[in-house]
Each structure stands twice: as structure tokens, then as C-alpha cells.
Amino acid sequence: MQPIAATEAILALATGETFAGAAFGHPGPAAGELVFNTSMTGYQEIVTDPSYLGQVVCLTTAHVGVVGVNAADEEAGAPRARGLAVRALARVPSSWRAEGDLDAYCRAHGVCGIAEVDTRALAIRLREGGAVNCCVLHGGDRRGALRLARACPPMAGQALGRDAGVDEPAAWHEGAWDPGSNRHARRQGRGPKVAVLDCGAKRAILRCLRERGLRVEVLPLATPAAAIAKSFAALVVSNGPGDPGPLAEAASALKAALKAKLPVLGICLGHQLLAQACGARTAKMKFGHHGANHPVLDLRSGQVAITSQNHGFVVAAEKLPRDLELTHVSLFDRSVQGFRHRRLPALGFQGHPEASPGPREMEKVFDEFAALVRSHAAQS
Amino acid sequence: MPRNPDIGSVLLIGAGPIVIGQACEFDYSGSQACRALKEEGVRVVLLNSNPATIMTDPQMADATYVEPIDAATAARIIKAEKVDAVLPTMGGQTALNCAMRLHADGACGRGGVRLIGADFKAIHAAEDREEFRRLMDSIGVATARGRYATSLEEALAAGRELDTYPLIVRPSFTLGGTGGGIAYNYEEFAAICASGLALSANSSLLIEESMIGWKEYELEVIRDRNDNCIVVCGIENIDPLGVHTGDSVTVAPILTLTDKEYQAMRDAAFRIIRAIGVETGGANVQFAVDPATGRQIVIEMNPRVSRSSALASKATGFPIAKVATKLALGYTLDELSNEITGGRTPASFEPALDYVVVKIPRFNFDKFPGTAPELGTQMKAVGEAMAIGRSFPEALQKALCSLETGLAGLDSKGHSSLEAVLAELRVFTPDSLLLAADALRLGATVERLHEVTGIDPWFLHEIARLIEREKELAALSLPKLGREAMLAAKRDGFSDRMLARLLRSTEKKVRTRRARLGVHASFHRVDSCAAEFPTATAYQYSTYGEACESAPTRRKSYAILGSGPNRIGQGIEFDYCCIHASLALRDHGFETIMVNCNPETVSTDYDVSDRLYFEPLTTEHVLEILRVEKPAGVIVHTGGQTPLAIAAELEEAGARIIGTPVAAIHRTEDRREFSRLLRKCGLRQPSNATASSGAEALRLAGGIGYPLVVRPSYVLGGQAMKIIYSRAELQAWLRGCDRAVLRRGVLLDRFLTQAVEVDVDAVSDGKEVVVAGVLEHVERAGVHSGDSSCALPPLSLSAAQIAELERQAVVMAREVGAVGFMNIQFAIQGDAISVLEINPRASRTVPFIAKATGWPVARIATLAMAGVSLARQGARKAAAPNGCFIKEAVFPFSRMPGADTLLGPEMKSTGEAMGIGDTHASAFLRATEAIFAIPADGAVLISVRDPDKAEALEIARRLHGCGFAIVATSGTAAYFAANDGSFPVETVRKVNERKPTVVDAIKSGKVKMVINTVTAEGGAPADSLAIRRAALHGQLLYYTTIEGARAIADGICERREGDGGRMLPIQRRHLPAA
Questions:
Q1: Which end of chain B is least crowded, N or C, by CB within 10 Å?
Q2: Cβ atoms within 10 Å, residue B110
Q3: What CATH topology corresponds to B9-116?
Q4: DSSP letter string over B942-996?
Q5: What single string gives the DSSP state of each residue in B10-60?
Q6: Residues B400-451: tens digit of each pLDDT
Q7: What is the mean pLDDT of residues A321-342?
Q8: Interchain contact A63–B (C-beta under 8 A)
Q9: What is the pLDDT of residues B205-258, one digit of tens each?
Q10: How far apart are CA B453 and CA B448, in angstroms?
Q11: What ipTM was assigned to the predicted interfaces of this complex?
């Protein structure tokens, strides 16, 4: 009789707890911060989201892998999470869109997987004990896993955003996904040119911008600030992994853009960087926001949007600079979710307006930004 | 936006009697609505004809009208109670239809009282299929290719135009898809269109291209007046499109869509709810998806809470009805809190599940031998079971165990030929999932099975994995089963009973082995947020091999075992009793633990008990709960047969059953013991015997005398009870019996012809016994007590007879040692009283008595079980009924093609309505009006057997006097003419004679009511079936017993002669206990 696992895998927390499960994907080891995500769809988007760079993601939904994997659902060229912990892994995918299975995909892309673990216990552990580093590896080496988990550096202070983005500037032409052709539309045209400073941008952000008639160029984080202000109509600072604190180059790019009164949009990590550039402070959260069901209140309209969220750092609500108008708060914990500069054409949104995975109702952030870019372009 | 201050009082419309397609999910939504309105200080006026509901409890509303749900009644109430608004979205299609009528009559909407929750325009846009399609086109949401028709000619023309089969026919404004169907050829198409037109409230049909083989999904959506929308739950049907969603095995969350596809569906659902114009509240949107291309099409949208929203609420812990009610009062989602997280999070979010929910419908085709158990677009299920597990296989196997159809999991149907199984699988039946498992056992590939069934390959792969595991287990033996393997099997949801079968052992041995290996259930909480926030709500389910979160308290607690899925014979009445047990014990300071697996019910609302376990009601699952909770006692008496069936095993395993002891229950159920008990009490019973062979049965029957009632002693799956009139008939019955059934025993009882049946309900604390009510049946003996209408106070019994019945009830309660509930069924033939049955447990009539008298029978009985004496409760005297109360049964015959409507000893009704009046006649009329439209004129067709002719003549004479024309078949007409020539009688030909026949007379629309009794001896003549089917088809008022016919004639004539009678809320009827 088969035991639970054909091959054993171990998940060890730096605090000492270990979990045994079934191995899938790459044999590992994979050490990094453990985060959970409660989204019930979009595991491939999550695994490929550069914001998860170096992390081990615990998906709380019961079955993972049912719809397989496909190229159109990648948020980056390959998975960025280092490890994946799930309760039940589907070995045979079933979807007209599937091009492969999650197990082989993880194996090919170096994601160390563990299945049959009590993901609910892990979520409770993170909720109660706060963020923790961990290690997943295949085989039964508990002590090795523990040692690696403990050796893993803490997230705060790491400039992970530097490793997550492109090295060379690149133009982006893909728009929205079309269900009929199962492809992303190719958009040409001559809209205002927007620079996306890439701290680990999700493709969905680029697609949302492109879909709104903006020409998109993805720039490395190290791009000189002056170059951006000179050749682009607007600046977007993307999402990305880890702590905004050490990313000084982004901060100077943002300051230059603000100074040039360029329209600016900060998303997730970019939102935190923009806030910092405007004088706000950021802090590490206890276990962050990671899910696709987070209600965010738009303080201007009184409407609530269900949003996709994935962040472990947050803009501190206290002492928000007077220049920043708080526009969105989380209804889960009242944390800062969005702001607008009172004098300058700058917006920040903490969640993922580009969704993918998750609800798309915050795409209106892109509408607002596109309008800002257009009116700014018309003026200048 | 806070709540609208203009709304001070609300009329809430319920769903009426339990019928197929509209069951106790609307008691769940209605009672939540009542509580939500009361919380907001709104005066609640309630209209619902169903006395078995919790929502009609006198304390739930300020004024409760147990009256027929029709526009005239609602308008009277609106006027009398001066309500500010009507909330029609909690009572299913019945309430919506009533609201639409109110609007049409001008009593509601513009110029009248306002509708909240959904307005006329929104209801119309969602329900009128042509309007719906036009709206969908305008917002760019795809619908199926189709045509509308309002006449048969148009329908046939549309069929020709679409020029493709199969075609799907959907009538507008019917509940649960009544009258719809899939037509595979022209003949079927014409037949379905004709019946659909007859049943549609506005005679319109939608004829659509079939999308057979497409996948079906549902989203439960909520919108508030600030235009905030959320999806509470996505549900996926395992069966492909073509099987009504109420008949489908469904799964939550949605598992087989990519995020991009799911978000497209979610966006479409929001566009739809906005376009339809549901300003506040819940809606259910159904989609079809082509599995080959992902093409999505919207099928329909219901602008109200539904069966699916009840399921979604239980599946997620998000109370849709309660929230929808508050939104209707003007709140927005962000102003309401998510109660399951103790208000830590707002209601404006979307629940995240970290488990899988499987719902499986429960059917009762066994009760309708003429009906093929085929599933289609018309709902046939009478109930459902839901299970929660950490994976699909675990939830699936738990759900199968929860059905109480004897399954231990994916039981084999015992086929040996794969081709035969695959052939059977071409038509969807209740057994399709089991047959799919059999096909895999016989070597079918998932691909082949998918081709045949249209079930998504992923589900089939998971089932195939279970079959693999099954084979591995079968190669082992119990002593060789190690901890790892045991744990793995339990994590996949294998029940102990299934393991016992696979390992050739017994359930008890498996349980012992499991305990020795230390493999026990752990419990997770349903928290709506996948553990992101802590919850204090103890809504739980079991799984294996994970951290246990049950955290029992140290308070003194009682576990209440629920009644499982609804089925004929065990319905909402038992859920009512379980809820009252919980509420009574909580009021008394005890903690309560509810165990049940029926998602439709109020008992599975986490608000009703302190701790809720959504688990199968099997010995195994209950013992695991008791192991963790260690309650002071277990109540098995309120949940009908379900908990009683496992009571002995639980007790043997150490559970402490409170109330009437299990051994005492056994004494009333075992034939020999029962006879001895009655002899000891000096009471009579019909002469009877038990035979264990055909020859013995014939010999014993001779001694008892005919007619007699026969039944197998171990009735499984509702095998028929029958009244036998002759030796020849008995021989025929015995020939039809399985030999094994015979060996286990056949019970023979003298049948008491023309006897009056009486139900007596009593409560006892072990010392004192109080009779709560004496109910006389309208129909004579031979009709199952659940199917007969009954009257409180009794119709014909003398005070002396009632006193004697009460005396006998007390004697028996004492002798049995009853503590708590007690129900006795008597038959009175002439002056002789015989005892038919003693049920020392909650009975079907408990809620009816409580509603009629206001005396809280279930509460008093439960507290007595917990040791609170009747004296201490101040309950030494029951309250008398103030007025007349009639309970009338409701039958599902129109859903069962080919079934006969004759009543007999086997129960067939799904629900009941109560009528209240100052006389029995007016109460009977009101009870009937809750089910049928009562004709004011037209013709009454009478065709009765000889013994009923004299009485029928009297009925005919009176109905004629009230303005009805009399039509009769030749024999009946001749009798009328010979014995009374005072009124004209039109004679119609019998079915097998030249046209036009009696059936044509019914079809012509002239006949508005049918009275048809047949001699039961030798079985009903086949031609009379055609009369009854025609009456059913024409939705006519019909009676198959002369007593019923007399009662309705009395009611109609009394109304003609006097006024319609007073209409009072039950709160004003109830008298203090004497």
C-alpha cells in the first residue's frame, strides 16, 4: 500500500516545527520566507509573480494543479517562488487551456514542491506567530531542512527588487487576454510612452497599461533617473518582492519624475516606494496580505472593491505626509491601500489592480492613471 | 448608508409547503430574514402556510399568518397590519409569484406598498425569458440560441426553425423547471411543449439548442445599493448540463476553471445583476461552459435567495439570507460584519475556502414505481446531503455516507460487464456516479468514461484514484493495515464500513484497529477566510491527519443528532424538533452540539447551536465527535429515524443517550415485545402475526382474516407496504417477494376497514405525562398518517373517546418509561380503540400541534429529557386549540411521470400546509387553498366506487347547490339519477370507450375538480389512472378519498353561505395553557 507520499518531502520552519508531505516539482532545497495565499484560483499566476521571488508559497485552497499550466497565465517568464506547499496536488490536469502539469512545470523551473501538508495549520501558524523563514526539500532530512531554514536571511533589509526585474529595456505590446483565441491581444499604436520601472513587474500590469492605449517600455531598476524624465510621458513603478527600504535607485527615479511633474503610478512595492519618495514611512507587517478576496474601500466614492493582494510591507498610516490624500483603505485592517498626491499627478495602490489572479474591479486605477497621462500629455 | 428609517414593518412572504424544488432552504432563509429584521427593530409580519417551519414559530415574527400564500391573502394582511414594505425574495418562486400578482393587482409597487429586495422590473427581467435574453444581448453576455413561444403552434414552428435535436424546453415562471425537458425528436418535443405551456404561469416557453455535455457552474452574487457586488460562492456541477442543478452532484469551490475564465464569469455575473436591476440582495447566476473551447453562456438568473444560496451559505459560512435582508433595509455590505469571524471582517469580502464541499441530491423514486429514475431538466430530488472535506475524494465519500441510502462510499452496483455499465451511463440517473466508479473498476479509461458521461476528466481521475486505493486495500487484511495506510485511506474519505468491506472485516473491528493505531478525526473550522482571521464560531467538519481546532469548552453540553437529508417520510418536521431541542437547552444554560449533514436546514445554521458539526450521521462520524466533545448526553429522539438507527451502536460504544432509553424504544419497535407491552397495559391492537415463509404467511393470514396489511420486517429503501384483500392477492404479493426478505420475516396485520385514525402526541418527564394534542385523520385507515389530512381538535370523536385515548396514551407512556416525546397512533373501528404504533420520539405532528396551540411541545419534551420536570417547567397542562386547525399533505405526483395519485399505506407526500378557521370546514378550505386553486364554478367530475356512491351523491347535491355543474362516469351518474333526480348530471364515457371520454372532458378545461375513488380490492382499475393523471396534468383539485371530497365540499359550501372567515395571526389564536 502506498503511503501518503511516494517520495517524502519536508517543510521545516526556522522556529523548529517540521511538516512531512509528498514531494513534487524540483527536489530543492528551497529556503525562504513562508507566505500563504488564500486565493482559490490562479496558482500559476501566483507562482510566477515576481513579488514572490525567493519565497515559499503556501496555497490554502484545497486542490492545486487541476487546470494544469499554460504559457498565457505566466506573470513572468518562469516561476519566481522558490517553493510551493499545497494540500492536494492534481497530477493530471483538466482544462482546454492546459499545456502541461504543475508537477513537471515546477520540476523544470526549480520550484521545490511539497503536497499533503496541513496548509491550514501553516496559515494559522503565520497568522499567530507572524512571518517565518522555512525550507522545503525532498527526502527525509529534517535536520538539514531546519538548518537551512535558520540560515536563511530575513526579508527586511533585502533589496530583492533588484533581482526580480529585467536587465535591458524592452518594449511591451501585449494587451488583454481574449477568451476566444486564448491569446493576449497584440496592441500597436501611438499612445503616450510610459516607462515601467521593473522591480519585478507582473505582465498583467504591462497588459493593463497597453490595453489603455499607452505605449509601454519596461526599464531595469538601474535606469538613470534623468533618462526617464526626459524620454517618457509617465512613470510606473511596479510591484516586486521584499522590502522597499533598500531600493535607493527607485527612490531617486521617483523623486526625479515627481520633480518633473511626470504622472506617476506606484503599484504594490512601487506604491511603497512612491510613498517613501513623498515622505511617508513603510513597515513590515506581521504576516502581510496575501489573497484575492480583500475588501478595499474607496474613500472618495464610498464603494468597496474586492482586490488581489500580496504584500508583506505596508505604508504606515500614521504621519502620512500632508501632500498625500488617502484614497483607499483595507477593510480588513484599515491599512493604507491607496493615495493620491494633492499637488502632483501621482497615484499609489497597494493591492494588485491588474488582478491576475483575482478580481478585476480595481483596473479602474489604470483608467484613472491613463486619464492622468493623457491630460498631462495634452497640456505639455 | 444606514438603514432606511421609513421601513417600520415588513411583510415577509414564505415559500409554503415543502415540494420538490422548494424545500426547507426557504425556512432557513426565511428564519434568517425574520431574525435580521427583528435585530433592526422592524415589526415582522409573516405569511407562510407551512406549519412545520421554524419561521412560523410564534416568537419569530410579531404577527404570523399561517394562511395560503396568494395575492388576495397577502393584500388583506398588508391592509390589516399596515405594513410599510414587502420582502418577497426569501420565499422562493412562491413568494416572487405572489409579489408579481400583488403588483399586477396594484396592491404592491407603484400606488401600493413597496417591494424591497427586488422590484417588479427586476423580477420580470430575470423571469421572463425573452426579456432576459434581450437584456443579455444588450450587455454583451452570450446566451444559447433559442426561440420563444406562447402557443403550441409557435413552439412547433420554433422547433422547425431551430432544426436541431436535442432541444431544451423551458417554461417561464415555474419552480424547479417543472414542465421542462429535453426533446430528442419531434414527438417528444411536441409533448414537452404541450405540458410546459400548461404549467407556465404566463403560458410561455423557451426553446433552446441543447448544450449537452457542457459544464455547468453557478455563482451566488450579492449586490448592495451602493453598487458593491461580491461573489459569495462559486459552485460547479459534476454532472454536465442537462441535469437540473438541484438534481446534480455539485462541488464548491469551482475547481476546473483557470483564473482568467473564472474572472470572466465573475465579471459577467456582476454585469447581469446590474442589468437585471437587482438593487439589493442575493441572486444566483447559472453558466454553461463548453469544455472544448471555454465558451461561456449564461443560462439563467434568479433574483432571490435560492436552494443554491442556502448551499453556498453552508459551504462558506456566509449567511446570504441574513445579509440580503439587511441590504434590503438599506445597509451596504461594508456596514455589515462577517459574523463568523466575530465581526473582525466586514461582509464586503468574498469567502475563501480551504476545503471542498460536495452536495449530493437525495431521490425517492422508490416511492413511485411507475416513474423511471431518469434525470433531466425537471428537478426530481426530494432532499440533499452535503459534506465537507479537505479534498474532493474525502468530501465525496463523506457525502455518499451522508445520503442514508445505505452507501458506505462508492459502493458497487454489482455489474460485471463494462459495456452494460457504459450503456446505463448514457442516461443520467441517481446512480450515475456509482456506475462511473463501477466502469473504472471494470477497466474503463477516464477518457472513455468522460466521452460517455460528459463528467470532467479531473473528477473521474480522482474517482479512479480511489478505485486504485480500493484495490490496494483489498489486497491487505485488517491486521496488516499499518498506521500510514490507515491514515491515507481515512484522508481519502474511506469510511470504516467501506474499509471493513474491503478488508473482509467488520466496522467495529476497523474502529478498534483505528483507535489502536491512534488514527482519529481532527476537526477544522469553517471560517470563510481560510484561516486568515481567527474565528470563535465553532462550525466544524472532520478530516484526518491534520491539526485539530475543535477546542471543546468545559461547559455542560448535549449533542443533538439531526435528521439528515430530507426524504419522503422524514422532512422538515424533524429538523424543527432538533432546532427546538437546541434552543431549549441553550435557554436553560447548557451548551448544544448539533450534528447534521443537510445544507437546506435551519439546524445547520451555525447560529442555532453553540457548536455545529457538519458531518454524516453515521456511528463512525458521530463517535469521533463525541470522542472530542464528551457531552453530558446525546439526544437521538428529535431527528426521526436517522439517529434512532444508530442509537444502539452509539450506546454500546459508550455514548450516554438521554431521554427515553434505547431499550424502551426497542420494545415499541419489536413486534413481539410490542404485543406483550400492550397486553400488559390491557390495550388492544389489530390481530397480527409474523411469518418467515410464504406458506406460513398464507396459513397465518387465514387466522387473522382479510383484509390485512403486509410488510417486510426489515424495510430497506422504502419497500412497499400493502393492503391485501384476498388469499389470491397475498399469494401474488408473496410471489413478488425476494426469498431473503421472506426469511427475515413478513409482518401481517389485520386491516381495520373504515376505521378512524388518530394521532396522539404527549410529553413525559418520566413521572408525569401530558397529552399535547389529539389529531383525528380525515381519511380512513389505509392512508399513511403522513399523507392524510388531520384535524385539531378532532372532527368526530366524542369527549369520552378523547378522554379514553388520552388515558391509554398515559398508560403506555408510563409502561414504556418514556422521557420526552411520545406519539401514539390509534385506529377506532366502531367503538373499539386499537393501538397501531407507539413512537417514543418526536413525531411529524409536533410542529403542527405547537403552531395550533402555541404550546411548545418540542421545548418541553427536550427539557424533560435533560431532567427538568414538567412541574418545574410549569408545563403540567397543555394548551387547547383556539379554533380549528387542519393539516393537509402535499404530493409530488406532477414531478413523477406515470405515477398514480392514489393514497395508500406508504407515505408519498413531501410537505404539508395548515389551514386555520373557526370551523373545520373553513380550516380545511384554507389548508387546501394553500396547495390548490379552489374553483368558484365550473364542473366537478365524479367517478366513485360503489361503497362511496351514497356519500358522493350528497356531495354532488351540495356542490350543485353552490353553483357547480356535475359530470359523472356512467355508473356514478346512473346511481345519482336513480336516487335523486333533483339536479342535472352529465354522463361522460369511460376511458376505454368511444371519444370524447372522461379524459377528454378533463382536458377540455370544463372540469375544475375531480373526485375519483376506486376499489382497492384487486388493485385499482387501470382506466381510472388516466382520469387521475389527466387531473394532475391539468393541475386540478382532485380527491381520491370520499372523506377528502366531503371535507372540501363542506368548505366550499360554507364559504358560499357565509363570509370567508376571520383571519388572525397565530399569536392571537394561542391561549395560555389551561
A1: C
A2: 9
A3: Rossmann fold (3.40.50)
A4: EE--GGGHHHHHHHHHHHHHTTEEEEEEHHHHHHHHHH--SS-EEEEB-TTSSSS
A5: EEEE---S-BTTB-THHHHHHHHHHHHHHHTTPEEEEE---TTSSTTSTTT
A6: 999 999 999 999 999 899 999 999 999 999 999 999 999 999 999 999 999 9
A7: 96
A8: yes
A9: 888 887 878 999 999 999 999 999 999 999 999 999 889 999 999 999 999 999
A10: 9
A11: 0.97
Q: Contact B230/A296 with Cβ under 8 angstroms?
A: no
A291–chain B Cβ distance below 8 A for any pair: yes
Chain B touched by A331 (CB under 8 Å):
yes
Contact at CB, A331 and B346, closer than 8 angstroms:
yes
* Interchain proximity B266–A359, CB inside 8 Å: yes
| Average pLDDT for A266-286 | 95
**CA–CA min distance B291, chain A (Å):** 7
Interval B1016-1073: pLDDT, tens: 665 556 678 888 888 888 889 999 999 999 999 999 998 877 656 789 999 999 988 7
A303 and chain B in contact, CB less than 8 A: yes
**Is A269 annotated as ligand-binding?**
yes
Is residue A78 within 8 angstroms of chain B, CB to CB?
A: no
The answer to whether the CB atoms of A66 and B255 lie below 8 A apart is yes
Mean pLDDT confidence for A115-123? 97
- Cell numbers placing B712: 417486510
Protein fold of B934-1057: Rossmann fold (3.40.50)
Annotated catalytic, A26? no
- Does position B741 have pLDDT exceeding 80, yes or no? no
Over 60: is that where the pLDDT of B571 sits?
A: yes
Contact A61 B353 (CB under 8 A): yes
Q: Distance (Å, rounded) from C-alpha B661 to C-alpha B672?
A: 18
Give the model confidence (pLDDT) of B938-954 as tens digits: 999 999 999 999 999 99
**Interchain proximity B545–A127, CB inside 8 Å:** no
Q: B687-750: what CATH class?
A: alpha beta
Annotated ligand binding at A191? The verdict is no
Strands A304-315 and A282-298: antiparallel
pLDDT of A5 higher than 60: no
CATH number of the domain located at residue range(s) B145-210 in this protein: 3.30.1490.20
Contacts of A182 in chain B (CB under 8 A): 294
Nearest-by-Cβ selection for A356 from B230, B259, B488: B259
pTM higher than 0.90? yes
A62–B534: do the CB atoms touch at under 8 Å?
A: no
For residues B320 and B309, give the distance between their C-alpha atoms in angstroms, rounded to a whole number.
7
Fold of B756-882: D-amino Acid Aminotransferase; Chain A, domain 1 (3.30.470)
> Catalytic one among A268, A271, A278, A328?
A268
Integer-rounded Cα Rg, in Å, for chain A is: 20
Q: Which domains does chain A have, with CATH numbers?
A: 8-151 (3.50.30.20), 161-379 (3.40.50.880)
C-alpha distance from A361 to closest chain B C-alpha (Å): 8
User: Which is the catalytic residue, given A135, A249, A352, A363?
Assistant: A352
Query: Mean pLDDT across chain B, nearest whole number?
Result: 93
Q: Which residues contact B552 (CB under 8 A, 6 or more apart)?
A: B611, B628, B629, B630
Which residue of chain A comes nearest to B290, CA vs CA?
A96
Spatial contact of B340 and B317, defined as CB atoms under 8 Å apart: yes
In our burial notation (b when 16+ CB lie closer than 10 A, e otherwise), range A12-48 reads bbbeebebbbbbbbbbbbbbbbbbbbbbbbbbbbbbb
Residue spans per domain, chain B:
9-116, 145-210, 687-750, 756-882, 934-1057
**Which pLDDT band holds residue A1 (cuts at 50, 70, 90)?**
very low
Domain B9-116 matches domain B145-210 at the CATH topology level: no
* Residue A173 annotated in active site: no
How far apart, in whole angstroms, are the C-alpha atoms of residue A195 and residue A44? 26
Partners of residue B485 in chain A, C-beta under 8 Å: 1-3
Instruction: Assess whether pLDDT exceeds 50 at residue A3.
Output: no
